[in-house]
Design a protein that fits this description.
two-stranded antiparallel ribbon, alpha+beta, 2 domains, 2 helices, elongated
Length: 114
């Protein structure tokens, strides 16, 4: 995928779940947990996921997702709902809802770098 992430950027990599028994190996896949050195590196990987659609057939079954607790999932859903409601209620047109993490951006600051 070539996103500029090296082994040094990954602080911890391990498989989740139990190994299949030798008596009953099954085909169950075991997820891999990857801890990145910083939030920015994780975002770089997540933002580059669109590149997976052009990779070899053997990588087509890969799914990558944020590892969030149930509280984080619920909070994220609440924030997205709240942001969409604020955008719907805004008649001035100054609030813009950006995809991804809920972010408020004023039109007068459009040329500012975040």
């Amino acid at each position: 995928m070539q996103v500029g992430v090296t082994e040094e950027n990954m602080t911890r990599v391990f498989r989740l779940g139990k190994r299949p028994d030798s008596d009953n190996p099954g085909i169950a896949s075991r997820p891999i947990m990857v801890h990145f050195a910083s939030y920015g590196i994780k975002n770089l990987v997540i933002e580059s996921l669109y590149k997976l659609k052009d990779v070899d057939k053997k990588f087509k079954g890969i799914n990558i997702a944020h590892d969030m607790t149930m509280n984080e999932i619920l909070e994220s859903r609440y924030l997205v709902q709240e942001a969409k409601q604020k955008e719907a209620d805004d008649i001035s047109g100054e609030l813009i809802f950006l995809s991804g993490r809920p972010t408020w951006h004023s039109r007068e600051n459009e040329n500012c770098a975040d």
